[in-house]
Write a structure and sequence with these properties.
heterodimer, A: mainly alpha, 12 helices, 0% strand, B: mainly alpha, globular
Chain lengths: 264, 270
C-alpha cells in the first residue's frame, strides 16, 4: 500500500516535469542537443583512435563503442531521474528551501530524489541504446534474453551506485557550506567509466576499479553483452550497489539530524 | 593615450585582486584537470600498446601535446567570462559602463588577462609537483622559430577565445538563458579545437577543412607549434595569417553584436 502511495507521488512529479518541460520547449531541445553533442564527441574520439590502432587494452572498436554506449546509457538514466534533484539538494540545504521537502507526505530522501525528471537526458537514452544495438550488430552478437536482462540489471545497479556516490557528496552540504564543483568533479571522474578495466594498472587500478565506483558500473554490463554473464561479477556489483546506496542514505540521514533550517 | 591605457591597467589590477580571492577555486579546478590527465595517460597508453607511433608521433610526443593543451587552457582559455558578461547584462550592472568613458570589451579583456595570469600560474603548481612522475614523458622540439611564432599564436588564441566568450555573453541581449548555447558551443570548440584529440589524427580531408575554421586557432594551433605537430615555419606562418584573419573577423562581429544588442537593451532603475 505504501509502495503504491509512493508510486502515485512519483507519477504526480513526473507529470509535473512533463508539463514544465513542454512550457520551455526551446530549452528542452537545446539541452537535448547539448547532451547529444557530448555523446558524439566521445564516439568520435574512439573512432579517431581506431583509425590508427586495432585495439585498446584488448577491446576492438565496436566493443569499445558498446562500452561507451553502456556508460552513456547509465549516465543518461542517472541524469534523467536524479541529477537535477541532487544538484538542487545542496542549494536547498544552504538556502533553507529544504524545509519544503520535509513538509511533504513522504520520506525526505524519496521526496528530494524524485521531484524532477530531466526529459532531455531521458530522450538521449534512445541514442545510447541505438549505439549499443548498432555496435552489437556490427560484432554479430546475438545475446539471449538472460544476457539482455542481466545487462539491464547491471545498468540499473550502475545508476544506483552513481546515485549513492552523488548523494553522499551532496549530503556533505549539511556539514560544509557549498558543494560547488560537484558537477565538474563528477564528470571528470565519470570519464574513467569509458575506459576498459584492463587499461588500469597499479595505483590507477586500485583507485578507479576497486575504490571508486567508476569503472565497474560500465565495464560489467558491456562485458555481459559481449561475452555473456560472468557469475563472479554478480556478488561484486550487488555488494557495491548496496554499499554505496547504503552509505549515501546513511550520510543523508545523519545530515538530516543536523539540519536546522536557514530562515531568519 | 597613456590615460586611456591607465584605465585598463587599473581594471587589470582590480581583476588580479578579484582572481586572487578565488585562488582556491582555480587551484581545485587545476587539480581536477590533472585527474583528467590521468584519464588521458591511461587511454593513450593503452592505445599505443603495440604501436610505436600514432599519426607519426610517439607516446611521449602525444602526451606532451595533451599536457601543453591542459596548461594552455589555464593561461589562454576562456573560463566563465561568458557567464559573467551575461550576468552583468541580465542584472543591469552593465548600465554603469554605458555611462563611463570606458570600453566594455577593453574592460572585460583586462579582467580576462588578469584572471588567466592567476589561473595559469596556479596550474603550474600541480604540474611542477607532478614533474618527477610525468617529466620523462615530456618531449619538446628545440627549434628557435617555434617560440618566435608560438608566442604571437598564443596571444591571438587568447584573443579568439575571449572574443568568442564575449559574443556568447552578449547573446543575453536576445536570450534570457544562454547556458545551453555555451555548453553546446563548448563541445564543438573542444573537439574542433584539438582538446579531445590532436586534430592531425582526423582523416586528412577533415583536418584540411578544420584549418579554415576559427576553432583550429583556439588551442590546437599554438600547441601544435610548440609540440612539433606543425613541422615547418612556413606552415606556421601561413597559420598565423589565418589566425589574424579570424581574430579580426571575430572582433568585428563582437563589435556589431554590442551595437545591435545595446539597441535592444533597456536600463531600468534609479
Amino acid at each position: 500500500m505504501a509502495l503504491m502511495n509512493y508510486f502515485r507521488i512519483w507519477l504526480a512529479c513526473a507529470r509535473y516535469s512533463v508539463v514544465r518541460t513542454m512550457m520551455f520547449r526551446f530549452d528542452f531541445i537545446m539541452w537535448a542537443l547539448v547532451e547529444l553533442f557530448w555523446m558524439v564527441v566521445n564516439v568520435l574520439l574512439v573512432s579517431v583512435i581506431y583509425q590508427h590502432t586495432r585495439e585498446i587494452a584488448g577491446w576492438t572498436e565496436y566493443e569499445m563503442l558498446i562500452l561507451i554506449g553502456s556508460s552513456m546509457l547509465m549516465q543518461r538514466l542517472l541524469m534523467g531521474f536524479f541529477w537535477s534533484n541532487l544538484f538542487e539538494l545542496g542549494r536547498n540545504i544552504r538556502t533553507g528551501h529544504f524545509d519544503f521537502f520535509l513538509a511533504q507526505p513522504g520520506d525526505p530522501l524519496f521526496m528530494v530524489s524524485t521531484r524532477k525528471l530531466d526529459l532531455d537526458s531521458l530522450l538521449n537514452v534512445f541514442i545510447a541504446v541505438a549505439l549499443i544495438v548498432y555496435s552489437a550488430n556490427r560484432l554479430h552478437l546475438h545475446p539471449g534474453v538472460g544476457n539482455i536482462l542481466s545487462f539491464i540489471a547491471f545498468e540499473f545497479c550502475g545508476m544506483l551506485i552513481q546515485y549513492g556516490a552523488l548523494l553522499m557528496t551532496v549530503s556533505a552540504t549539511f556539514w560544509i557550506i557549498g558543494s560547488q564543483g560537484l558537477e565538474g568533479s563528477y564528470f571528470t571522474l565519470f570519464e574513467f567509466s569509458r575506459l576498459p578495466r584492463e587499461a588500469f594498472k597499479g595505483l590507477a587500478n586500485a583507485i578507479f576499479v576497486w575504490t571508486l565506483p567508476v569503472v565497474i558500473v560500465s565495464n560489467v554490463p558491456a562485458r555481459t553483452l559481449i561475452h555473456g554473464l560472468e557469475l563472479s561479477y554478480v556478488p561484486w556489483v550487488v555488494g557495491v550497489t548496496f554499499g554505496w546506496v547504503g552509505l549515501g542514505a546513511w550520510i543523508f540521514r545523519r545530515g538530516l539530524r543536523r539540519y536546522s533550517s536557514a530562515s531568519s | 593615450m597613456l590615460a586611456a591605457f591607465d584605465k585598463y591597467r587599473h581594471a587589470f589590477l582590480v581583476g588580479l585582486q578579484s582572481s586572487l580571492v578565488y585562488r582556491w577555486n582555480f587551484g581545485i579546478r587545476a587539480i581536477f584537470s590533472f585527474v583528467h590527465l590521468a584519464y588521458v595517460f591511461i587511454l593513450w597508453g593503452a592505445a599505443f600498446h603495440g604501436e610505436s607511433t600514432i599519426g607519426g608521433f610517439d607516446l611521449g610526443q602525444t602526451l606532451t601535446y595533451f599536457i601543453v593543451i591542459l596548461v594552455l587552457q589555464f593561461f589562454i582559455g576562456a573560463f566563465n567570462e561568458d557567464y559573467q558578461i551575461s550576468e552583468e547584462i541580465r542584472n543591469g550592472l552593465i548600465n554603469q559602463f554605458l555611462l563611463k568613458p570606458i570600453n566594455y570589451f577593453g574592460y572585460r579583456a583586462s579582467i580576462f588577462i588578469s584572471a588567466r595570469l592567476v589561473s595559469g600560474l596556479l596550474a603550474l603548481v600541480p604540474l611542477i609537483l607532478l614533474l618527477p612522475v610525468i617529466g620523462h614523458t615530456l618531449t619538446f622540439p628545440h627549434e628557435d622559430w617555434r617560440l618566435l611564432l608560438g608566442l604571437p599564436a598564443l596571444a591571438m588564441s587568447a584573443m579568439i577565445q575571449f572574443t568568442i566568450a564575449y559574443c556568447f555573453g552578449l547573446l543575453t541581449f536576445w536570450f534570457l538563458e544562454i547556458q545551453s548555447f555555451i555548453i553546446l558551443s563548448m563541445a564543438i570548440e573542444m573537439m574542433l579545437g584539438g582538446q579531445i584529440f590532436p586534430l592531425d589524427l582526423m582523416p586528412a580531408w577533415l583536418f584540411h577543412i578544420s584549418r579554415y575554421l576559427p576553432y583550429y586557432y583556439q588551442m590546437y594551433f599554438p600547441a601544435a607549434i610548440l609540440t612539433g605537430r606543425i613541422q615547418d615555419p612556413a606552415t606556421a606562418a601561413v597559420g598565423l595569417g589565418f589566425q589574424a584573419f579570424w581574430a579580426i573577423v571575430l572582433l568585428g562581429f563582437a563589435s556589431w553584436l554590442w551595437s545591435r544588442g545595446l539597441r535592444r537593451h533597456t536600463a531600468v532603475g534609479g
